[in-house]
Specification:
It comes from Ruegeria atlantica. The protein is 69% helix and 0% strand. It is elongated, with a radius of gyration of 22 Å. It contains 13 helices and no strands. With 359 residues, it is mostly helical. The relative contact order is 0.15. The mean pLDDT is 88. It has 2 domains: 81 residues, no CATH class; 268 residues, no CATH class.
């Protein structure tokens, strides 16, 4: 990890630790104030615990033009992104994406769409609906490795992170506490539940929390759609295409709408926000990832709407190409931040448990 980023975040954390004005603002400050000195692992943990709500910045009396020049959201955002790049496997891919994320995402979508178009030109072994273009076995052969290999990569990254932050053996209570906070997006409501200051300076808003809910649950519904369809195919010998009132379609359409709307609103919030309170160098990569995720959802909805038309093969090629690009890029984009965030919350639950035992 880059030493200068860690050192700057440590300098600011030490000043915040002496001031303690923001102790009740969010989950970062109780964890920060529990320490007297900060190792590199401590700073990495604080950075991944931070949700960039920015409330501390607007409440701080030591921001520029004060000589302390505090901007803790920016300092932690830079450490956070650097930690993802440092722990990623293979590492060079992560640094490349965050520098040129939009261009890479676009190139992959176009490239994979062309690949699928070529496969379609070769032909299919037969089948109904989408399988008349690309057989079920061919889809499994392509997408199973594209799904499992990124999970393997993320597993290596999280193992490196867990070692760096001094993680302990995980207990069920730690995991339940972390998942509960994640499901509620509790930390995006900040310390007093009023919301965060992400998009409109010192005005509190729940917009970012609601948008994250739409994206997270939209994605989970889409994943549930694919999972249920897989169980129906292999477990009950019920093959696609499925009707609208089937679980795969209900989950998929609902998830697609939530995901599309959530990504659109997230881009709008980011455009309204102050880039200087985040990691400026990663802004393009973040926008590229959000657009890719939204495009996957939107192209899926369009494919469903025109699935019986003459343009279906072209729409299928574009959609499958974008899905494959999303899968393969997952360990190197902000998609990975969900895994790191849960890991940071689990580690924070362990810290709280240790404190309660001492008391």
């Amino acid at each position: 990890m880059r030493t200068e980023l860690i050192q700057e975040a440590r300098r600011q954390a030490e000043i915040c630790n002496a001031c303690r004005y923001c102790e009740g603002y969010c989950s970062v400050f109780p964890s920060l104030h529990a320490e007297r000195a900060f190792s590199d692992g401590d700073i990495t943990q604080l950075a991944n615990l931070c949700h960039n709500c920015r409330g501390c910045y607007y409440a701080c009396q030591y921001t520029a033009p004060h000589e302390f020049d505090l901007n803790l959201p920016k300092a932690l955002a830079e450490v956070r992104r650097d930690s993802w790049e440092s722990f990623a496997w293979p590492q060079p891919l992560a640094r490349c994406f965050h520098s040129h994320g939009g261009a890479i995402a676009l190139a992959l979508v176009v490239g994979f769409a062309l690949i699928f178009w070529a496969i379609r030109a070769i032909g299919s072994t037969g089948g109904e609906g989408f399988y008349s273009v690309l057989s079920h076995n061919a889809m499994v052969l392509i997408f199973a490795p594209a799904f499992l290999l990124p999970l393997f990569s993320i597993g290596i990254s999280l193992r490196r992170y867990w070692h760096a932050v001094g993680g302990q053996p995980i207990q069920l209570g730690d995991l339940k506490a972390a998942l509960s906070r994640t499901a509620k997006m509790q930390d995006l409501a900040a310390g007093h539940g009023e919301g965060c200051n992400f998009e409109d300076e010192d005005r509190f808003s729940q917009a970012r929390r609601h948008v994250h809910h739409a994206i997270m649950y939209g994605f989970l519904l889409c994943f549930a759609s694919t999972s249920v369809a897989t169980i129906m195919h292999y477990g009950f010998d019920l093959h696609a295409p499925y009707g609208f009132w089937s679980l795969p379609k209900l989950f998929g359409v609902t998830g697609g709408v939530l995901l599309t709307a959530g990504c659109y609103m997230m881009v709008r919030l980011k455009q309204k926000s102050d880039r200087n309170l985040g990691d400026v160098s990663a802004w393009g990569g973040e926008i590229g990832f959000i657009l890719l995720l939204g495009f996957v959802a939107l192209s899926g909805l369009v494919l469903y709407a025109f699935g019986s038309s003459a343009v279906m093969p072209a729409l299928l090629a574009v959609h499958l190409g974008s899905v494959l690009a999303l899968f393969l890029l997952t360990p190197y984009t902000k998609m990975a931040h969900g895994f790191y965030r849960v890991a940071a919350l689990v580690r924070d639950a362990q810290r709280k448990r240790d404190v309660s035992v001492v008391r």
